[in-house]
Amino acid sequence: MLPKILEDNLSIPVVGAPLFIISRPDLVIAQCKAGVVGSFPALNARPQELLSDWIKQIKDELGQFKEDNPDKKVAPFAVNQICHLSNDRLFKDVETCVKHEAPIIITSLRPPEDLVKAIHSYGGLVFHDVISTRHAQKAVEQEVDGLILVCAGAGGHAGNLSPFALLRETREWYDGTILLSGSISDGFSISSALAMGADLAYVGTRFIATKESEADDDYKKMLIESAAKDIVYTNYFSGVKGNYLGPSISRAGMDPESLPEADKTKMNFNSGGNATAKVWKDIYGAGQGISSIKNSPTVDELVTQMRQEFDSANKELVEKVSKY
C-alpha cells in the first residue's frame, strides 16, 4: 500500500535512495520535480547548521514549482538519518527535521523509538532500511511506516539476501509499505519489483550518473564503463558489508579480490572507516545494476526513460501471463 502523501504525487513508483556526499538540494529537487521521491543524508549538510537551509530551500523551490505547474506530479522529499553511535549529530539533525517538518525520514541501522515518535508528532513518515526479517520485525515493533528491503546487489551498504527471498518472506507477515532495493536501475526492474509484491522501487546508483548529481565526472565515467562483474562486496571500508566499484579500489592501491575483514571496532559512517582511502570519495559505491547505465542524462530525461521502460515492461508482462 502507498501512504497518502505519495498517492497521486509520483510519475513512477520510485524513491531515490540517499547518496552520501552526492545527494544535495539540486539532485533532490530535480527528482521531486520529475515525480520521484528525492532524498539526501542529513550528514551531507556540513556544517550541521546547513541542514536547516537545505530543507528550507527544497521546500521553497518545490512549493513554487507546484504553484507554477499545478498539473504536474511533484513528489515529497526525504532526509536520511544514520542511527549509530558514531553519528554524533543525530539528535540535532532530527531536531532540525522536526522543526521544518520534513515529510519523510529514512532511518538506517537502528530505528530509535523516540525518533519515530518525534516524526509522527507532525504527521511525518519513517521508512527504515533492513537486510533481514529480524531487523524488519524490530523496526515494525517501533511503528515505522514502511520497510526498505536492501537486498543483494544494492549499491553501498547492502544485504546478501535475494530480493525474491526477503520480499516474499516479509510479505508473509507484513502488509504495510515495502520499498525494494537491489540492482534496480531501469523501468524493467521497477516493474519487476512491483510484480514481486513491493510498493515502491528504491533506486540509488542510477541517479549518480545524472547531470544534477554531485558525483565527479570520473565517478560517472567509471559507472558507464563498468558492469556487474566489477562490483565488490566487502565490509572493509566501513565495517558494514557493502558494494563498491572494483576499479576504484584498484586505483587506491588495493586488491579487490583480497580485501581483509574489517575491524568492526572502527566502524564509522562519517569517514573512511578502516581504509586510508576515503570510502564514497575515493572508493566508489555502486550496485550490480550498473550495466544499464550508458550515459549521464538529466534527472527528468532519466525518469522519462524509466517511465517508457516501465510501461513497456508492464505491457509485455500482461501479454506473457495472459497465455497461462
Automatic annotation (TrEMBL):
CDD domains to which the protein is assigned, alphabetical: NPD_like
Superkingdom in the source lineage: Bacteria
The family database entries (InterPro entries) matched by this protein are listed as: Aldolase_TIM, NMO
GO molecular function terms listed in the Swiss-Prot or TrEMBL record: nitronate monooxygenase activity
Keywords, sorted A to Z: Flavoprotein, FMN, Monooxygenase, Oxidoreductase
Q: Which family does it belong to?
A: Belongs to the nitronate monooxygenase family. NMO class I subfamily.
Query: What is this protein's name?
Result: Nitronate monooxygenase family protein
- Organism annotation: SAR86 cluster bacterium
